[in-house]
Amino acid sequence: MHPRDQTIFALSSGRTPSAIAIVRVSGAEAGAALKKLAGKIPAARMATRAMLRDADGQAIDDAVVLWFPGPASATGEDVAELHVHGGRAVLTSLFAALAGIKNLRAAEPGEFTCRAFENGKLDLTEAEGLDDLIHADTDRQRRQALRQLKGMLGDKARDWRAAIIGASALIEAGIDFSDEGDVPAELIAPALARIKALLGEVKGVLAAQGKAERLRDGLVVAIAGPPNVGKSTLMNQLARREVAIVSPHAGTTRDVIEVQLDLDGYPVTVIDTAGIRETDDPVELEGVRRARARAADADLVLWLADTDSAKIAHQGNTPVWLVRNKIDLGSGDHDGPAKPEFRISAAHGEGLAGLIEALVRFAQDFFGSAEGGLITRERQRRLLADTAAALERSLSAIGQGEELAAEDLRSAATSLGRLLGRVDVEDILDVIFREFCIGK
Ligand code: GDP
After folding, report:
1. Distance from the CA of 324 to the center of ligand 1, in angstroms?
2. The ligand 1 atom nearest the CA atom of 233
3. Model pTM?
4. 9 burial class (0-12, 13-18, 19+ CB within 10 angstroms)?
5. Contact between 273 and 290 (Cβ < 8 Å)
6. Nearby residues of 432 by Cβ (< 8 Å), 6 or more positions away
7. Is the CB–ligand 1 distance for residue 155 below 6 Å?
8. What angle do CA 150, 167, 402 make, to 5 degrees?
9. Could you tell me if the CB of 228 is within 6 A of ligand 1?
10. What local confidence, expressed as pLDDT, does residue 259 receive?
């Protein structure tokens, strides 16, 4: 049997051991598997208690089972959910029992979502939203992912695509049947108006994109400055503060290289450039490589200096905040050539609250319009930009020939189809036939 047609199973809940573990089974054999294990198929969508047994009749666990007959299920296929005790031995026996059933196999990563996509349960942008929701660390990331999962971008793309196909149908009808005099020549004008309106909307979403894409990855702040000014001390202070949600980034042995801060719901990664040092340790190496690459295009640099050594290295267009450290040492009035924006004592904590507050405001400004932004990935932005470009081409081509314009419209619809994960040119013909009753 083709792997695609096999029934799959996997642990869908978190790391074991845990109080409860949820194993999902999806596919044509899910019902048969449930019957074999639980002795019955319970009423649809009703939590039902059952003793699960292996092929020899040995008890595996006292469980709660659920039955979701397709297509009204998460994957669109028949789905069984087994809620068992989350012990490793329980799961080992349960998986052995499931694997022993004909045409059942362990699922590949993402395979449930993939089947849901193939069965039209969600489009690609929604699948991306689902992935983001699972990985969201902060509240704002969660809300953004949820918007995506609810199809905010997908719905728009579907509407646009339908409108483009409609406009393209008008133009193609003009091309194919104008000899017959059946299709009024004025069809081109409304089609043009529609394309113009669409182009405006697509461009609007592209422009309002703001930093929504970055909300997924987080804003990057690099701490830089000469040796011994207290960069690592500041870093370790930040990591110890309440705002730090995730701490040491993998690949450090001595100090923290990166901390993830949750600043008012915005994800902010702070990188200590002093922590980035040469290493031969292959495990460390990858962490160092990543940290260096990220620090190189940081969104903000905190340039740390002590006493009057306030010299700022050139940072291109990146904003740099001069932070005077070690104010507890009292040589405070010699600020050097540049006036510092912040005066702190990393070791003793003075001024840190003010610095963090300023970082929160920076994050708020930086993400600003990201709230409500629909594009969260490079893939989405690229395809929308392709769509806008094709629409623009079709508008300028219309004067030179409708065939060219229609071709560009097809390409715009294809880009949107790719965005949604569906590309089918048959749609255009469909609309022509439906709207114009050509077979008269
Ligand atoms: P880095 O090389 O920039 O990472 O600097 P470190 O964080 O390793 O700090 C260098 C030295 O300065 C250490 O001995 C720290 O304890 C000390 N130091 C850091 N911040 C302060 C501070 O605010 N006040 C004082 N008095 N010493 C500090």
Report:
1. 12
2. 7
3. 0.65
4. buried
5. no
6. 169, 172, 173, 438
7. no
8. 140
9. yes
10. 82
> Which residue minimizes the CA distance to atom 12 of ligand 1?
230
SS3 breakdown of the chain: % helix, strand, coil, rounded to 5? 50, 20, 35
Determine the straight-line distance between the first and last CA of the chain, rounded to whole angstroms: 46
3-state secondary structure of 209: coil
Q: Is the CB of 345 under 6 A from ligand 1?
A: yes
pLDDT (0 to 100) of residue 37 = 97
Q: How confident is the model at residue 243 (pLDDT cuts 50, 70, 90)?
A: very low
275 Cα: distance to centroid of ligand 1 (angstroms): 13
Query: Cα 343 to chain center, whole Å?
Result: 38
By the 8 A CB rule, do 235 and 394 touch? no
The Å distance, Cα 407 to ligand 1 centre, comes to: 64
Which atom of ligand 1 is the closest one to the Cα of 274?
Answer: 4
- CA angle 25/28/34 to nearest 5° reads 50
C-alpha–C-alpha distance, residues 229 and 232, integer Å: 9
Evaluated on CA atoms 10, 12, 15, 20, the torsion sign reads negative
